[in-house]
Amino acid sequence: MGFCPTNFWTMSLIKTAIIDHQMLFVEGLTALIQKHKYPAIRVVGTYDSVEAFIEKYSFDLDLVILEINLPDSDGLEYIPKLRNLSKSLRIIVLTSFGEMKFVKEAMKNGADGFLLKSNAYSDFVTCVDEVMDGNTYLAEGLRVSPPVTSFAYTPQESKKPQYEDRYMMKQKLTRREKEILSLITQAKSNKEIADELFISDQTVGVHRKNIMRKLGVKNTLTLVKFAMEHQLV
Known about the structure:
The chain contains ten helices and eight strands. By secondary structure, it is α/β, with parallel strands linked by helices. It folds into two domains: about 10-140, Rossmann fold (3-Layer(aba) Sandwich), CATH 3.40.50.2300; about 165-230, Winged helix-like DNA-binding domain superfamily/Winged helix DNA-binding domain (Arc Repressor Mutant, subunit A, Orthogonal Bundle). Strands 2-1-3-6-7-8 form a six-stranded parallel β-sheet, sandwiched between helices. It has a two-stranded antiparallel ribbon with strand order 4-5.
């Protein structure tokens, strides 16, 4: 839509909340927003978790800016809850994680826009302008599906980097596996974990093997060390 002040939303105040635990980033974005006139955006609240936001949610709100990598929750899983708060509420994911699977899940769960923290502020303003007009917006280069190619062959899978971001690694684990991993790092046996979670110790053993396979470790000692070093628990 551009930045024309005749746009409806530029004539109205867009009441906005930011959900992000990176406070320096939040303060910087808020400062930029306060200086911008069109569209007229006002940050009415900042929160370090989705749960904190929901507790104080007001229906007098137009837009949520959401980081999906939150320390105590997966922002992607909370998008449907935000969507259910109000049909008119717009949701923009603003994150450092632009992998296709994250973009696809975010849009599938109800996000209206998705852009990266590496994008320019002008891209952010364009995104706000678009979603407040009822459109969806993806920053340049982001995809929800792989590009169509005419090649008949399948290219060889590229080698994985030796180090993966801990958020990416967490996405490999199911909620139950994350729960069991946390208990494993507390030096609890399969039976102790089974008793605490009301499942069989054989089931715990299967989960333990799956966790080690997904994280690429060979034994429990290495698993605990890996989990602590990468802050997976």
